[in-house]
Amino acid sequence: MVASCIANLPSLSSSELPTSHRSAHEYHNFARPIVELPYTDWQFAAPDNSDLTDRLERGQVLCFPQLAFTLSEQEQALLGPELVGPKRKNISFNIDRDRINGVADPTNEAAVRALLKRYYQHTRNLVETLLPENRGKLLEPVNSLRVHEISQWQGKSSWRKDDIRLHVDAFPSRPIHGQRIIRVFHNINPHGTLRVWRVGEPFERLAERLLPRIKPYSSLSSSLQAALKITKSKRSHYDHLILGLHDAMKADTDYQANGQQWQLDFHPGTTWMAFSDQTPHAAMSGQYMLEQTFLLDVASQKNSELSPLRVLERLTGRALL
Ligand SMILES: [Fe+2]
User: What domain of life does the UniProt record list for this protein's source (predicted)?
Assistant: First the structure.
């Protein structure tokens, strides 16, 4: 049987459908938060008139249960929690700077670097195929190799860093001024262990509910944080709000337990991708994963009105940059 990414996807009752006209277009097609695609080869051509860009930009997860990223025997032999330095969550690789961090034993560095470089090349090609408007415009590529069992690592985290809680991604110390965060994941577990996620409701509906809980933006305090090097540049109003949403979601225990959500199961050999600044997600369990991050400009999106920046500007009635 071919592995599927879909664990339990109850259909929505009519009372759960959005009532506001504003969010109706975003909700369209969200009765299922995931789209499964049958590709087995990383070099596939997206079908003509594909709506895959629209689906991604609406916040759906694209899942490729048969798109395997194969590790050599030597690479597989490297996998183990001891590959990463003590106290580090992941091994990370900055492609533009060719800089790798977190490999415990320097003699393993070349092999891990080659693996992460290859993953970057595969995922860049995938994103450029699926988002042709962004060809040549994928910014600041960084990827990571995650070798810890999620439950063991998360036990050590504060609630803000606890990714078992549903959240949208936001960078506390690195303002990105409205740029999009797209991430491509691959389960490389050699023992058959699933990576289990939850995903939540569409961004606009969530933001509408949570925005009133976020304290007002202060340009002065954002300037101070930048001057004190707490942040790498000045946090914009947008950065303040997206971080506020991230925190408000994680702090809300009722939302975590009872908010609208679906469970997704990713088998080893599965690739999946999403705009992680838009799609509420939580990593519940699993071990050994590859993750590639790209930033994208809102201007290079096909449906820029669906981006968190434009949605938050619409909801607050003001420019946020
Ligand atoms: Fe996340």
Answer: Bacteria
